[in-house]
Specification:
Blueprint: H1 12-27, E1 40-45, H2 51-62, E2 66-70, H3 84-91, E3 97-102, H4 107-112, E4 119-124, H5 130-144, E5 150-155, H6 162-171, E6 177-182, H7 191-201, E7 205-208, E8 220-223, H8 234-240, E9 259-261, H9 282-300
Parallel strand pairs: 1-2, 1-3, 3-4, 5-6, 5-8, 6-7, 8-9
Length: 304
């Protein structure tokens, strides 16, 4: 039985296989509409979510399956003191696969140790978000035609941004990628990722304070929001939340084929005026998330 806790749980060949299956689903959705008939997905979301939870639920329903679960810990027996392990053991009696989001790093990993069914990490604190990474990879492949041989700017909250952490680890296994880390000093990428990924693998990277100084060289710009829920001090959040706002003016020096990604939700880090720019990929990216989760569940349930 396979789980997906970290993006590195999958080999490059397995990732490519999932992305290929996702593209096949996009090309012929009707062929996959009954493949999970009789199967049930449980969504255990101990932390608020809109896109990820609904994306998982839509994915299972489009495969012909059913969904159960909760969207808040307050709506579950967690409010009575039940442990994650006990919840998973019980829910595993009712469902064939579980998608879990939890505010504590490592909670899905602990759940996978006792679960009778496959566990998918749908985000654990500031640690990992592997299905968002698969979504990002599918989007990059569809928008740019390949995974590799581009310069990517990662902008905003690189300290707490689990989507950034997962994406860096996944992209590090593809060739020819240059990394530009755009963040204020307080939200720089954690040192362990610099050491364990960039320095250990000998990957080219640089850290800058503004997107304007590097915009002309970027092929991909991955924007992130400053996450209020990760701050212990609201004053620090207020001070940093508007550090980077992408607008038409900043895009004047960008390449005509720049791909702008954002894992969403957006607060104000991308001005609405950018939405109509053909280089804005983030709503197409959200749609890709449904298809890649369909492919992942088929693989973990050994149905494709």
């Amino acid at each position: 039985m396979r789980h997906l806790i970290d993006s590195t749980d999958l080999s490059v060949a397995e990732i490519d296989d999932i992305l290929d299956l996702a593209q096949k689903i996009i090309d012929n959705r009707a062929a996959y509409s009954e493949m999970c008939k009789g199967k049930k997905l449980a969504t255990l979301f101990y932390e608020p979510s809109t896109r990820t939870r609904l994306s998982f639920e839509a994915a299972m329903m489009e495969l012909g399956g059913n969904v159960l679960g909760f969207s808040s810990a307050d709506d579950s027996s967690v409010s009575k003191g039940e442990s994650v392990g006990d919840t998973v053991r019980v829910v595993g009696c009712y469902a064939d696969i579980i998608a879990m989001r939890h505010p504590k790093e490592g909670a899905p990993m602990r759940a996978s140790m006792v679960s009778p069914v496959p566990i998918i990490n749908a985000g654990d604190g500031g640690h990992n978000h592997p299905t968002q990474t698969l979504t990002d990879l599918l989007t990059l492949k569809r928008e740019r035609g390949q995974l590799g041989n581009f310069t990517i700017g990662l902008c905003g909250d690189l300290k707490f941004g689990r989507t950034v952490h997962s994406l860096i680890k996944a992209l590090s296994r593809y060739e020819g990628i240059n990394y530009v880390l755009i963040a204020p000093t307080e939200l720089k990428l954690p040192g362990y990722l610099i050491k364990d990924v960039f320095e250990a693998e000998g990957l080219p990277y640089k850290e800058v304070l503004t997107m304007e100084e590097v915009m002309p060289e970027l092929d991909v710009l991955y924007m992130t929001r400053v996450q209020k829920e990760r701050f212990f001090n609201e004053a620090d959040y207020v001070r940093l939340k508007d550090t980077y706002i992408l607008d038409k003016k900043k895009l004047k020096t960008a390449k005509p084929d720049l791909s702008i990604l954002h894992p969403l939700p957006r607060v104000n880090e991308i001005a609405p005026e950018v939405d109509e720019d053909p280089r804005a990929c983030y709503f197409r990216q959200a749609l890709n998330g449904k298809f890649v989760r369909m492919a992942l569940m088929l693989k973990l349930l050994e149905l494709a």
